[in-house]
Amino acid sequence: MGRGKKGSKAPTSRNAVTLSTGDVLDAARELKELPVSLGPTVTFHRGAKLPKGLLDRIIDITRDNMKTSYDAALGWDNWDDHIKRDEMSHKLSRFLLRWREGATDSRTAEDLVAFVHFRFERADDDDQQSVLYVYEIQVVSSYQRRGIGRELMELVEEVATQLGIDLVMLTCLKNRPEGLAFYKTKLGYTLHPSSPEACDGPGQRRRPQTVKGFFSGAHDKFMERPVLNGMVLLNCVVYGAWRCTALSFRVTPREGERLRRFLMNNFTCSWDDIMTKGRWHQSILYGFSHITFPHFVFNTWLLYFIGRPLYDRLANEKEFGIVYFSGLFAGAVAETLACRNRATPLVGASSGVMALLASLSVLEPNRWWYMLFPIPGATLSSMQLADINLAVHLVAAPAVLYRQFSRRFPPRYGSNVAYVGHLAGIFAGYAATK
């Protein structure tokens, strides 16, 4: 059930932060300190920068308090540590941590007794109001009924008031009547129109009904991961351009040839391009180019689903870009150097994707993946997946080099798969991960 409480606009005072309506969410997300007094036992943190031990403690508290309710409300054994970790370590996640009294000098994870997890978002309705959305508020069982939950919620509401946020919202499971009573009776929260109970049918959620609301929501979704989503979009645009060349040759051959030449001169890579002609930009842009539909779908799908958790885990877009583009560049140099006589130019995002997987295996080694192939339903951790990938390429890359330089094979004999470039991308991903 969604619950909302109207937040008043920021008052005029030296301690208030005045933000325009259009900038309020972006400015709130950039704050390194909150415009409220937290006191000696409460600290403010960004989810993406929480130490692993502290994040583990937060997840343990949430599991102890909520697993039974999650399973009862959403299905047997519905609780998933990995999903909760992704949610809490997201770059937009913010935390207020409540520490044990007296633990001020050398705090450890065990000194954490309560927390509130929230984000600054936009309401999913026609008004598109700014929202401080409370994802979790949890108190260790031995510290419950001491007013700590009220203390944290009042701090959250004060943050919203000072920043000029329109609403404070949260979701509460109906099978926790004590929680519903706390929010409704003690804090005065009411049912928000976006709650499933306020919609036309069970399980349905209200959607923006205007064109403006739709595009505003789409923009917000895109800006959650602008670099990653931009890469996916560019992959789609370049693949569409390659398809247009095939169509143009049938209608206007001259224009089709001009478009093909532009793509060949910018979105493919070969030894002659980067070493002879000095077109070094092609050592990066080739990674956005895919000729065949299966190649495009597979690489773009991997880019998004491997890139998304890594993007949320890294501190900023710059670090994500360094990992991905270093993989593309290393793959281009290694593949064109080792297979300079290959008949076809180099295209595809594979080397960059290999770098992302290598980086993710270092930062999130215990993340589990459900396989679609070659064994549907099998599960592998990021570390296991990266190790298998590395082993395959340590065997395949030397085999390609042998066939490339051996006199037993024709001069241009090789593989359509850039195993050498993939291997270079893997090593670049490891090297670029701090």
From TrEMBL:
UniProt subcellular location: Cytoplasm; Membrane; Nucleus
Pfam families documented for this protein: Acetyltransf_1, Rhomboid
Domain N-acetyltransferase residue range list: 56-208
Enzyme Commission (EC) number: 2.3.1.257
Single GO cellular component term: nucleus
Record key words, sorted: Acyltransferase, Cytoplasm, Membrane, Nucleus, Transferase, Transmembrane, Transmembrane helix
Entry membrane topology: Multi-pass membrane protein
Stored InterPro entries: Acyl_CoA_acyltransferase, GNAT_dom, NAA40, Peptidase_S54_rhomboid_dom, Rhomboid-like_sf
Protein family membership: Belongs to the acetyltransferase family. NAA40 subfamily.
Record-given protein name: N-alpha-acetyltransferase 40
Organism: Perkinsus olseni
Classification of source organism: Eukaryota, Sar, Alveolata, Perkinsozoa, Perkinsea
